């Protein structure tokens, strides 16, 4: 197939997902023999407000309209040169006018939109899901949300590229556990339990006290701008930012529930500040994307945490969620221990290929067990690696996606 791809949220790979999904998708598509036509339209201006699900300002709507027309112009030009078989996007509502999918249908080009935040941020893609031909979602239980807006969901999980995530020979792994990732949701609670239990562990990533404290999402507006596309911007962590969040919560949830939500957020943030000193000795700071496989290979146990906020914001319920790392880490041939979900059990044999935990005591006990029993850890390391290579590559995922959508692979 000749596939037109618009999956980069910025042409600058340092911004947002400027290079993550193209790096994951393109090698697999090419390995399957497909031709890629990549959009050259920079989505960064619209990515700056992709956290807004609806209620766009006139300026935001106008920018989205211009971006949509630029992308469609690219598709028309490519289609005239040689027929395009498929349009593959990774759009939030901010990126692309949903009416643009009607134009693609008039050209006879089917469309698929990928989205991997469907459980806790579905509103951000609801308008796109209602119009695109197929909604590729990574979460097993997200289909009902797509059907509720008239969409056509296709569940295919994420995967990993064995050329990027791979074992490293010649490295003697330390008798410690490691976690690679930013501080988010309740990850610091799990890590604090390990530190307090004196389990040897290192942390790589931002927000763990090794960089400026993360008080909220980074500002999406260009630096120095008080207003962007008609929407007032707030400096993260400022009094104005807190005031904006407070008023928005009250409007959305009502006075009593809104105030209760804000109080939960305040208590959670206060507890977080008290935990940060625990990580001073084990927080190693952020590392380049290209070193993740190397870092994980240097530890006897690799950890992951599965919970996300139910609506993407602190103070809501915590729900387990399969992560991209659940496929990347085993591909690196590590002894992998992650939060338990029913869904992850569909992809691995728990206790043989990877292992999971449901509570802090279980997490502590299992890390100690695998550190104390390297032979058992080695058996799981090898079994998880073989399973990942066999079943969880992006090549296998695209084969499954095209089979489920009726497109030729």
Would you spell out the secondary-structure blueprint of this structure?
Layout: E1 2-6, H1 20-31, E2 35-38, H2 44-47, H3 58-81, E3 86-89, H4 100-106, E4 111-115, H5 126-129, E5 134-137, H6 143-148, E6 153-155, E7 174-180, H7 187-196, E8 201-204, E9 227-228, E10 231-232, H8 239-253, H9 255-275, H10 292-297, E11 299-303, E12 307-309, E13 318-320, H11 325-331, E14 336-339, E15 355-357, H12 360-372, H13 374-391, H14 394-405
Parallel strand pairs: 1-2, 1-3, 3-4, 4-5, 5-6, 7-8, 7-11, 11-14, 14-15
Antiparallel strand pairs: 9-10, 12-13
Structure description:
- The chain is of the alpha/beta class and 409 residues long.
- It has three domains: 2-159 and 393-405, 3-Layer(aba) Sandwich (Rossmann fold); 174-214 and 276-391, Rossmann fold (3-Layer(aba) Sandwich); 227-263, no CATH class.
- It contains 14 helices and 15 strands.
- It has helices at residues 20-31, 44-47, 58-81, 100-106, 126-129, 143-148, 187-196, 239-253, 255-275, 292-297, 325-331, 360-372, 374-391, 394-405; strands at residues 2-6, 35-38, 86-89, 111-115, 134-137, 153-155, 174-180, 201-204, 227-228, 231-232, 299-303, 307-309, 318-320, 336-339, 355-357.
- The strands form four sheets. The chain has a six-stranded parallel beta sheet, with helices on both faces. Strands 8-7-11-14-15 form a five-stranded parallel beta sheet, sandwiched between helices.
- It starts with a strand and ends with a helix.
- Mean pLDDT is 90; it is low at 212-219.
């Amino acid at each position: 197939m000749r596939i037109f791809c618009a999956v980069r949220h910025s042409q600058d790979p340092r911004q947002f997902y400027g290079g993550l999904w193209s790096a994951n998708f393109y090698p697999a598509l090419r390995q399957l023999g497909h031709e890629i036509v990549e959009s050259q339209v920079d989505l960064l201006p619209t990515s700056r407000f992709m956290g807004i699900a609806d209620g766009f300002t006139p300026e935001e709507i106008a920018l989205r309209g211009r971006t949509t027309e630029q992308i469609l112009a690219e598709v028309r030009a490519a289609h005239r040169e040689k027929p395009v078989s498929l349009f593959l996007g990774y759009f939030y509502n901010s990126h692309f006018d949903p009416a643009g999918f009607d134009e693609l249908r008039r050209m006879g080009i089917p469309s698929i939109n990928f989205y991997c935040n469907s459980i806790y941020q579905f509103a951000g893609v609801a308008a796109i899901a209602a119009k695109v031909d197929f909604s590729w979602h990574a979460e097993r239980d997200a289909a009902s949300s797509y059907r509720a807006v008239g969409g056509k969901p296709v569940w295919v999980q994420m995967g990993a590229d064995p050329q990027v995530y791979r074992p490293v020979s010649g490295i003697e792994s330390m008798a410690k556990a490691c976690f690679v990732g930013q501080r988010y949701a309740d990850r610091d609670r799990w890590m604090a339990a390990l530190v307090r239990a004196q389990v040897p562990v290192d942390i790589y990533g931002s927000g763990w006290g090794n960089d400026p404290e993360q008080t909220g999402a980074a500002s999406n507006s260009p630096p120095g701008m008080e207003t962007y596309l008609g929407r007032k911007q707030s400096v993260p962590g400022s009094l104005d930012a807190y005031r904006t969040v407070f008023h928005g919560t009250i409007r959305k949830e009502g006075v009593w529930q809104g105030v209760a939500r804000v109080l939960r957020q305040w208590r959670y943030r206060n507890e977080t500040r008290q935990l940060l000193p625990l990580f001073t000795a084990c927080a190693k700071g952020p590392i380049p994307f290209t070193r993740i496989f190397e870092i994980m290979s240097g530890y006897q146990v690799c950890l992951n945490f599965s919970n996300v906020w139910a609506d993407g914001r602190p103070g809501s319920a915590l729900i387990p969620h399969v992560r991209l790392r659940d496929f990347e880490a085993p591909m690196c041939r590590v002894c992998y221990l992650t939060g338990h979900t029913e869904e992850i059990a569909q992809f691995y044999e728990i206790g043989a290929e990877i292992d999971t935990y449901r509570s802090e005591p279980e997490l502590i006990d299992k890390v100690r067990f695998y550190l104390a029993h390297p032979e058992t850890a080695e058996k799981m390391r090898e079994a998880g690696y073989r399973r990942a290579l066999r079943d969880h590559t992006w090549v296998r995922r695209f084969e499954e996606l095209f089979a489920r959508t009726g497109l030729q692979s």
